Amino acid sequence: MVRQQRGSGKDRPVYMISVAAELAGVHPQTLRIYERKALVQPTRSPGGTRLYSEADIERLRLIQQLTQDEGVNLAGVMRIIELQIEKERLEAQLAEAEAAASRAERKLASEINEFRRSMRADIVHVPRGGIVRRDVR
Fold first, then answer.
1. Residues 74-127: pLDDT tens digits?
2. Domain carrying residue 31
3. pLDDT of residue 9
4. Alpha helices, DSSP H, located in the chain
């Protein structure tokens, strides 16, 4: 099943099936088929009315492009969408890993600098008459 996250903005469900179908350039029955095949999951109102978001409309347009222009069947479309979702998930995971690596590099550099400062030996000056220690930190 292909799942979308709901929230605000592009994911806010606002379009009834007839409007969504018109915006996507398909028949409402086609949207019902896509829903049965889990290609799109419109939100349901308390009364059971399907409500489509702008993100749903974009997905419907993509499905139309793939099936009409590219000749991909619905099983292929489902796989393409699943791969897109997986790609986005992996990109987010990579961005998190890169941020964590950057934080670790900064922390390590700071710890190395602190270690270097702590390893500086006190300057020892031996004047005539005795040893005097001076800290140069």
1. 999 999 999 999 999 999 999 999 999 999 999 999 999 988 887 765 555 666
2. 9-94
3. 80
4. 17-24, 28-36, 54-64, 74-119
Tell me if residue 50 falls in helix, strand or coil. Answer: strand
- What tokens were used for 104? 């670790």
Would the pTM count as exceeding 0.90? Answer: no
Q: What is the CATH number of the domain that holds 37?
A: 1.10.1660.10
Domain presence at residue 88: yes
Q: Determine, yes or no, domain membership for 131.
A: no
* Token pair recorded at residue 102: 């950057």
Q: Is residue 126 part of a domain?
A: no
Sign of CA dihedral 16, 61, 69, 39: negative
Question: How many domains are contained in the chain?
Answer: 1
Within a domain: residue 42? yes
Element (H, E) at 125: strand 123-125
